[in-house]
Amino acid sequence: MNPLYQQMETSVFERMSLAAAKHGAVNLGQGFPDFGWSPEILEAAAKAVVEGSNQYAPSRGLPALREAVAAHYGRHQGLDLSAENICVTSGATEALAAAILATVEPGDEVIIFTPAYDAYAPLIRRAGGLPVEVALQPPGWRIERSALEAAISPSTKAIVFNNPHNPTGRLFDRDELGVIAEFAVINELVVISDEVWEHILLDGQAFTPIAALPGMASRTLKCGSAGKIFSLTGWKIGWLAASTELATLAARAHQFLTFASAPNLQAAVAYGLNEGDGWLQPMRDHFARARDRMTAGLEAAGFAVLPSASTYFMCVDLAASGISLDDEAFATQAVAKAGVAVVPLSPFAEQEAPRHLIRLCFAKRDETIDAGVEAMARARNLIR
Hints:
InterPro entries: Aminotransferase_I/II_large, Kynurenine-oxoglutarate_AT, PyrdxlP-dep_Trfase, PyrdxlP-dep_Trfase_major, PyrdxlP-dep_Trfase_small
Strand order of the largest sheet: 2-8-7-6-5-3-4
GO molecular function: transaminase activity
Distance between the termini: 41 Å
Domain Aminotransferase class I/classII large: 26-375
Protein name: Aminotransferase
Oligomer: single chain
Keywords: Aminotransferase, Pyridoxal phosphate, Transferase
């Protein structure tokens, strides 16, 4: 057996969702919304499966979708892209895998900022690379120049960068982007930028893709997700946007991962990207209201909630809430004793893992949020 997988534990998201199902708990753990999609895009998918092709799509994606992705980023982010810069993938995690496998060689070091999405480190190791963690510190979670400088070595090949940031809900500012860009250019590094939350922006926030910074267009592989944009996470339609050279290289890795994705879903996503700009702000407003509802309920129950500017997620500081248990112990007992599933933050890092924080998903209907808050209040009283 490959020791990488033999020794690997089940993803924390899967683990907590299975526990939620076992105990009949409210699932505030895994990051899927139960609202937010538009019926028009569902109708487009249904029409495409009946009237369109149901055979293999081109490996790099339907031309209509690749053109729609390029045009979408031109309108929203000012990026100068064409279909030749796009490779469609089976979700953004596959985009990350293709980007990492295409650029990382055995012995390369790859910087990741922790807490980090738990796919990064295994994918880097599968490519033969070594993940190097730069620990972001709560509650600000800022990227500090000194910490990044200390992590760079002659073996550094790439930086995997997630903005907006899961699990913290942080949207990094222009100065922090500039630090990463500066180090990437000076050290001739590739940046694999996981930007799947780019449209889940709350409180009027604006997003800047790192590829837009000077010197970055030719060295950035941008990973995007229709599942996040349209709240349809089960569709698993993602993409890579990069220079023609990097996009072609990543497409060669992609062809032997999934080869191609469902053509009807690709066609529906192309429709959504071309016609759905008006859906974005109402979606953001709905998520912001959900965040505020959950925050108010948790704070009324005595929990210390950290700010969230983006994504579906917020973090709760257990220690500041007067709870002595660590994150894993609290999560285990909360789902079994109080009927609520949350995600501990410690699995998001291997070295300097915070053990007093949990992540909750607020992309839920009001009744789910209220039930979850009520269960969290029970948990606080039962398992301090």
